[in-house]
Amino acid sequence: MKSYSNIREIIAFLRELSDNNDRRWFADNKERYDALRQPWEKDMERLIAEVGEYDDNTRGLDVKQSVYRIYRDVRFSADKSPYKRYFSGVIGRGGRHTRISGNYVHFEPDNIMMGGGVWWPEKPVLDRLRALIDAERDEWLTIVNNPDFASRYHWECDTLKKMPADYRHIAPDDPVAPYIRMKEYIAMMRPPMDYFDCDDWVERVAGDLRHLMPMHNFLNYVFDL
User: What is the spatial distance between Cα 62 and Cα 48, in angstroms, rounded to a whole number?
Assistant: First the structure.
């Protein structure tokens, strides 16, 4: 099936928005925004359905739960720009409010990315994740070193410089050490623009996100699903 939205046109609009991030410009271009946003949300709905074919945690997710609004909450921010410079959404249980390992797609000028994992877990959850990785290190290393995963995704995580106190017994060159130092578990790929030059980018993205499923299944073992 052919995608409804054109990612090149979306990025071009968002680039203009980045240069004109004010309410008057947006009001003057609201029809353009709606003409791009509505088909993109249709494609996101299809992406949810495609991922739901292999991920039970995605089934039944409403697209409105998944996608982030364009409007920024500026109450507590030094940046008073009223609009986000990107379209994005979380594809997983709970949508953008999820706490478990799920998928994320992000469309922004010069910063298109897709991937997933566990974002900023609370300390009790992070403790359980580290303990699981340490206890099941062979399974974890098999997952993250699988060429289907490693050739597509790289880690974009906030990381400790030193091992956590409970893991000082792990040598710095131990293969599992980098994962114990992580404070979150986010694997991302940053496809070039021409990645989306196909009849159905939705199907293509869903196919690549599928290679995150072993990671999701492993990490989600610590959650009561």
Answer: 8
The CATH fold assigned to 7-222 is: BirA Bifunctional Protein; domain 2 (3.30.930)
SS3 content of the chain, % helix, strand, coil (to 5): 50, 15, 35
Position 77 confidence tier, pLDDT thresholds 50, 70, 90: confident
61 pLDDT exceeds 70? yes
Give me the long-range contacts of 64-72 (CB less than 8 A, separation at least 24).
65/94, 65/95, 65/96, 65/97, 66/90, 66/91, 66/95, 66/96, 67/41, 67/96, 68/96, 70/33, 70/37
Nearest to 170 by CA among 124, 218, 134, 127: 134
Closest CA to 23 of 87, 107, 80: 80
Residue 54 sits at φ, ψ, to 5 deg, of -125, -5
- Note the pLDDT tens digit of each residue in 22-48: 999 999 999 999 999 999 999 999 999
The pTM assigned to this predicted structure is: 0.94
Rounded distance, CA 190 to CA 155, Å?
11
Rounded to 10 degrees, the C-alpha dihedral 175/181/184/190 comes to -50
Nearest to 221 by CA among 76, 103, 118: 118
Question: CA–CA distance from 48 to each of 20, 173, 197, 208 (Å)?
Answer: 32, 39, 20, 13
